[in-house]
Amino acid sequence: MTEFQEKLRQQHEESLHRELEALLSTADHADAQSSRKDFQGFQKLFHRFLQVKGPSVEWSKINRPPEQSVQPYEKIKAKGLPADISTCLSKLAVVKLNGGLGTSMGCKGPKSLISVRNENTFLDLTVQQIEHLNKTFNTDVPLVLMNSFNTDDDTKKILQKYKHHRVNIHTFNQSRYPRINKESLLPIAKNMAVNGENAEAWYPPGHGDIYSSFSNSGLLDKLITEGKEYIFVSNIDNLGATVDLFILHHLMSQPADKRCEFIMEVTDKTRADVKGGTLIQYDDHLRLLEIAQVPKAHVDEFKSVTKFKIFNTNNLWISLPAIRRLQDKNALDMEIIVNPKTLKGGLNVIQLETAVGAAIKSFSNAMGVNVPRSRFLPVKTSSDLLLVMSNLYSLDAGSLTMSKRREFPTTPHVKLGSSFTKVQEFLSRFDNIPDMLELDHLTVSGDVTFGKNVSLKGTVIIIANHGDRIDIPAGAMLENKIVSGNLRILDH
């Protein structure tokens, strides 16, 4: 049976190779060179996908990480900062993962170009943060954007506007991989074009691709030559992911032979984070465990807030020389995430992906730092957008901080219905953003609009019945209220 399976595997790989060569023959010379590198990476991933059968973790071997391997942020902060923190900053580059589109929020183009606060986009806020850092400490921290083929053109056009800001911006593209038919395991693309009938044939293969595409782009070597030692990597839609000087100092103050090559920022799980990846000890290594790797029988245990108390924020600090070393040895080991998709015509395809944090087990002296929740402020939905646009936060030099006037440090739990999903529609439903300083929980469902200067406190639930509409009048104060049915306010 194994001999049969081995032959089948070889057959799949040979067929894939033939198909990829045929696709490359349709590309122009410049595109063919970069695509060949992409395809080599894809073939490695495909080879591993065929090799690995069964779960990537044995549940019985999973242990909680030892205490010293996940340090509390307070302990790192207690060390204070050296007088020459700018020396540390001169060895840092900031990398933002900028491959995503704003489609889930009803926007065309890169997600980083959605306005989130006072007309500022995610990208504006990022540039402001780093410029502020460079001016304050008289340093030169560059910003590196990892784009995808979906976001590269639009992002590059926008970058013109930051020419006179004190921040050097570099970009590189993550790979472009072919979606494969679930049955035949062959690419569905007809040629190398990314539009028309081929629009759904390609995908960017998850942020684990950063290591190879960063290296292939030549940017990794360029930064090392410039004396950079670490990158701080985070998602561009996480508004809490600012450069933390205490973590940077901790990295730089380690003795050379015990240098920590990888820090993952984790934070305490709440009920809203049960699907987030967590850190575990496995075969004497720290390892990231994602929900996709958990056997079905153990999913509830994985989601438990008591057994797995922390989750990965995807704010990572990684040594550049270590990436170079591991790339050269082909020694980066990341679990494959098999992401099944059904395309518009009903065709079932799979995308093979990896996660940037999954490489933690390949780095020396890796550790977790349990950071305050404020460092995890992602904007994935219009509910998140409402929070960051409100008076819960104040904006200073591109950074959002929780208002001192809020009495407790947690954010309210906000659930907005489908009428609010798209950003344009969401904005049209608010004359201005309500006062939410004393809000604990907000649920809104159906056709609901908010007048000017509305104030929400405690738990507020507003449900418009199907076919009905609720207009919350200007100046209304709702505290621990349920509003349901139909409420129209008409001008006369």
UniProtKB/TrEMBL annotation:
Q: Name one GO biological process term.
A: UDP-alpha-D-glucose metabolic process
Recorded metabolic or biological pathway in which this protein acts: Glycan biosynthesis; glycogen biosynthesis
Q: Where does substrate bind?
A: H207
Is Cell membrane given among the entry's keywords? no
UniProt EC number: 2.7.7.9
List residues binding UTP.
K111, Q174, G206, D237, K380
Q: What class of enzyme is it?
A: transferase
Q: Give GO MF terms, alphabetically.
A: UTP:glucose-1-phosphate uridylyltransferase activity
Q: Which Pfam families match?
A: UDPGP
SUPFAM superfamilies recorded for this chain? Answer: Nucleotide-diphospho-sugar transferases
This protein's UniProt keywords: Nucleotidyltransferase, Transferase
Reaction(s) catalysed by this chain, per the record, are:
alpha-D-glucose 1-phosphate + UTP + H(+) = UDP-alpha-D-glucose + diphosphate
Self-association and partners: Homooctamer.
Stated family: Belongs to the UDPGP type 1 family.
Q: Which PANTHER family match?
A: PTHR43511
| Record function comment | UTP--glucose-1-phosphate uridylyltransferase catalyzing the conversion of glucose-1-phosphate into UDP-glucose, a crucial precursor for the production of glycogen.
The name this protein carries in UniProt is: UTP--glucose-1-phosphate uridylyltransferase
